[in-house]
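Extracellular solute-binding protein
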Amino acid sequence: MNRRLRKSGLWTGALALTLALSACTSSGGKEKSAISKLDRKDKGTLKVAYFNEQAFFMQYGNAFQTMFPNVELEVVSTESVFNAEDPVAEMEKLVKEQQPDALYLTEDQYAKLAGKGMLYDLDAVVKQDEFDLDGFQPSVIELLKAKGSGKLFGLSPSFSTQALYYNKDLFDKYGIPYPTDGMSWEDAMRLAARFPAKKDGDDALNGLFQSSQTSNPFELVRTIGEAKGLTYADADAGTVSIDSPEWKSIFQAVIDGYKSGSISMPSDNGGAGGGVFRSMGGGKMAISITPDSMRFMSGQAAMTIDGPMIMNLMGMETKIGAAGAVRSSKSTDSTTVKPMGSPFKKFEWDVVTVPVDPSQPDVTGNMSLDSVFSINAASENLSAAWEFLKYANGEQLAKTSAKSSPSLSARTAYKTQESGKNIDAFYALKANSQAILQTLPEGFAADFSQLAAEQIKQVVAGSATLDQALKEIQTKGQLLLTKANTSVGQS
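Predicted structure tokens:
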């Protein structure tokens, strides 16, 4: 199972099909079947697995039915799947029981179903239909194939990654040079340390504020280590290797930042102090803003590492000033309107690529797929299902979504636009396949991260030395891995 949880997304579909069976190979297996063209006048059915019916028709169904009016659409709700304790296993169960034709999957669900032979291999139909993959961000296709053991079992219209945002006004104020694309993690931390850090109060200031989605102080250590090609555990060998000079150096640099306040310490309630965004089903996003999570947007951090949605909030001070007014309950004969103060601060900002390591200067480990559209390998409506996948991942929808969606379009011709900003920073790096494809036993990564977090906090508080902490993480981490591997072997 994948070592990190990914943002969830939901979606599936299926349609009528005419199959032209091909001849058997000399080995006795079948060649991939050709999928015949679905005409606008053709009748058929398409059974789609998606979060809920209303969301599906608003996002895709109504427009698709206009294209193919004689295709009957049926939605299999996956809402219960994404609220389950194990959404991956629940999706597998739903596909077996309901047999939808098309599927809207999370990255983890896609990898699991592909590995079990439950998804249709798209390589032949992409070539047959001359579907243009060259218009996609190369890393998206590479990641889809990597998760499919070298084959393409789905398409993703968008992806997630991060960039380093920086407050130009603060850099100018303190005479510090701006960050640059391809900057090393060491250089980024040195820049952060040049600001006069203050942890608390109205004038609090961090040189580097961690992602609004980061809740564990080990996350930054792990990210830097993976950028250097390091791993802390090998499930196949059954060994943990965190107590090494290379890892110690990273721990030391990050902990020094936590102690001084130049790097923000994530809080236990999530998101480096509260979190800004929380994923919801159907590709929707709830916004939860707390004072801590707004530190960069309120001018209390020189840099932050985060996703593209931050860009949508950076102009909030203008939007709130124009539309934000509250009604006063003190007035009895008329309603008094008062302007609502903005929690955001207006300043000049831009983005560069997330820091990298000189040994792997063109990769990032934080790329993931928001959602994947796939076809059930057992579908009897392949033609309709394929037309649906083409529409959901096509140029027309990408062009429309580029103006309204906070996600990063997988089609590079329709990148998110922000006037004067270095949007290419989100597209410049490739996926770090070593980090993304590393697999660890169920639950181990989360348990190990919690163990490491506790030890980091003790070192920051001064109740343990780094050497003591690393020995504790190594010893207890090894026990956790041995136990997790034993559990896997017994299951």
